[in-house]
Predict the structure.
Amino acid sequence: MRKGRRLASPLLWVTLLFAVLLFEMPALQPVFHWAFPEARPAIYDRDSFFALFLSQLAIVAAASGAASAVGIALAIFVTRPPGRDFRALVEVLATIGQTFPPVAVLALTVPAIGFGAEPTVIALFLYGLLPVLANALAGLEGVPAAVREAAEGMGLTPLQVLRQVELPLAAPVILAGVRTSVTIAIGTATIGSTVGAVTFGTPIFDGLAADKLPFVIEGAVLVALFAIVTDMALARLETRLRRHRP
Amino acid sequence: MIEIDRVSKSYGGRRIVDALSLTVAAGAFCVLLGPSGCGKSTTLRMINRLIPVDAGTIRVGGEEIGRVPAEALRRRIGYVIQSVGLFPHWPVADNIATVPRLLRWPKARIERRVDELLELFRLDPDLYRGKYPPQLSGGEQQRVGVARALAADPELLLMDEPFAAVDPVTRDALQQEIAQIHRRTRKTVLFVTHDIEEALRLADRIALMQQGRIAQAGTPLDIVAHPASDFVRDFLGRRGLGLKLLSVRTVAERLRRGESAEGEALALDAPLSEALSAMALRHADRVPVKDGEGRPVGVVTLADLVR
């Protein structure tokens, strides 16, 4: 029964598919040859797909890690008495960060710091801040007032209330924000390849430039699977956190 | 013991609590009674410093509350609120253990204490220890809430309309339990309610509040027998006043020793209102009375009720 349920898990199969394509894409060479006879080579070969994956993973981890840390920290700050006045300001800044297109951020940062992964990390960080901040605020505010009053009334210090009561209760909502942010970042990271970041976007843009459709398909399929696997894994973690919650 | 000395609190220019003074003796069950908005909850919350006072002083056990850190003060004071506020992500045992854990009791002592409290509230420890608050009924949640407040054996228990949100049957049971626990432990209790029946049933002292001041303070009998003002009379309810008077006097006060009567006997500490109710039901003008061991000791007659 348990084993059956584990085998039926979509996460398992999608992860497996992603891993197989990541390492064994060249095995599909005949298929691409048949579908696109004029494209030679039919499999992107300037870098291994695994190398592209590791590079994109590092970019996304840096950007989303920073966006999550800063977003959660800001949400905590503006929900404490000393920070309450800054709340509107912080929310406006985060909204601007998200409405500002990442491409425009790239265009502005490249002249300042040059080509490579850094402009992409900055663009993704700004883009991913709002979902984390908005959810962290919603999560912290969703803690029932009675629970907070009881915690204070029992004699928990403000730090204890935050760590033992507010953050655990807000965790599922905060994680949902992180999940949105990370999933967006994985998809958006590919445009970083236009300014020298190495991602699954690299074969996509190479393929577009050289009119090689197979490269575009390979990059697009892999980046989509990367995003789906991450999203499903985080969704599962969220479900686990929600257990026993009212 | 709580001493509240000329304490005031204003919100937006409105005086919610107005130079209020009140002393609650150690071991007393004092009910702070009054209509909504009279400042009774604010007064309660100033005692454990959830609300800072504007003026005046409050002493708990002789010590001014501002002298100790707020957290240390609160760990000495049990606090129960209407909406309970159990931590939904912790099992019942951890909820009850909140303050003992803050006080760093040894683990074995905490476990013993949790089981002891669950048994006190007739919740089977093996069944309830591991349950989560959303799995409990309203009455069970409030029992756990009171158990949590009692966990570290506080000298003082503050209760803010704790039973207002539960159904009448559960409320009745909870009132009986808290009265029993008070009799057994002799903790000082300050209990806020707007429910006059609840106050008469539980209190040995009542402080009736009106617009941030004490309208009248005294024993339930004092207040019902000698209302100090029209406000007090109105709040008690003029029509039912006579019945309330019977509800704060016991059968023992009107007992005719040695006489006997038919029917089921009342306890000596039953309120006279129960005797009247029994007479009305039985179409009788006298009911028998028994002592603690169930031996017949006498009767109460209808004429005695109106004496």
